[in-house]
Design goal:
alpha+beta; Butyryl-Coa Dehydrogenase, subunit A, domain 1; Butyryl-CoA Dehydrogenase, subunit A, domain 2; Butyryl-CoA Dehydrogenase, subunit A, domain 3; 3 domains; 4-stranded mixed β-sheet; 4-stranded antiparallel β-sheet; globular
Length: 396
Amino acid sequence: MKISFSPEDEQFRQEIAGWLKDNLKGEFEELRHRGGPGDEHMFPEERKIWEQHMAQAGWTCPGWPVEHGGKGLSINQQVIFHEEYARAGGPGHMGHIGEGLAGPTIIAFGTEEQKKRFLPGIVDGTEYWCQGYSEPSAGSDLANVKTKAHFDEASGKWVISGQKVWTSLAHESDWCFVIARTEPGSQGHKGLAFLLVPMKQEGVEVRPIEQLTGTSEFNEVFFDNAVTDADNIVGKPGEGWKIAMALLGFERGVSTLGQQMHFQNELDEIIKVAKENGSSEEPAIRQRIADAWMGLRIMRYNSLRMLSGGADGSLQKEAMIYKLYWATWHANLGKLAMDVLGNESEILDEGPYELNRLQSMYLFTRSDTIYGGTNEIQRNIIAERALGMPKEPKGR
């Protein structure tokens, strides 16, 4: 399978590649290849400044419609943008949850007032978002959420109480989109609402969760009678599940091509180390490197099939295998990195948490098959939704 690019597309490639070359230097040089998964703790304020610099040049939210502040790029040009950004070592987006999840959801389901209120801050890089989905008893089983919200007639506000967990970048965020139960006694998919909640208020407590790497990029978030305005609900009460699932569809969008370019950068680093320390001469290592290369190409071809999804976030069958595939592939890449490093993989440079990039990558890949839906849950999704097989029996 091959995606073709027109002369106009290739001209666009030169444009974005040239802009990145001219701008990822000077004060931004230190940000190259920093801030991705497992490295989110690095340079958060500097990366916000970088995103505001991109915004001034019109390079944030490139796939959004022009009327909402984006560039309205074609699918081909969006692919080019994300690939060239990763190829140039563009730092991880502090605003990726707003740009890739909150924004497209508001565009698809929000009111005109919500679009005017929330989209400009995402485009400008001045307001940042986090995702309030998972809970201690509702991780992969999202429909088991216990966080509650009720509308207080006296104040004219929604009042939210509950706990969310594994909330990436909550400590850097201005807003959180929260799935909460608004219908007392409801269960499962019913009685949920999709609320937009300000993080900077009394009643919201953020507690960092320390990872194996010694850093904290995600958090527990406690809502204790936190409030949000009456019109900060997307859709209607009871439509939260529909909107939450549409948002997950946007997560499988064109930015996955950029993710794969980051994977390519990691594989290139592994190959470089293997050549330097001689491990590339080992037949088993050479075979695993070849398998990783082939796996990444397969991932790309499947992603290209995913790009025909609808603007409402509905998932193609091809998209339903993506999380399972990349998580397993990336976890294996982490193991390969450690085997290529050999004894050096067990040695720290300085202090207890001075990990090199491959060590940090390996430790973070241990979570790939868990967050965003475990591999076991992903297999159920493929069986039930893509293949139409009987649903797994539920315990009483």
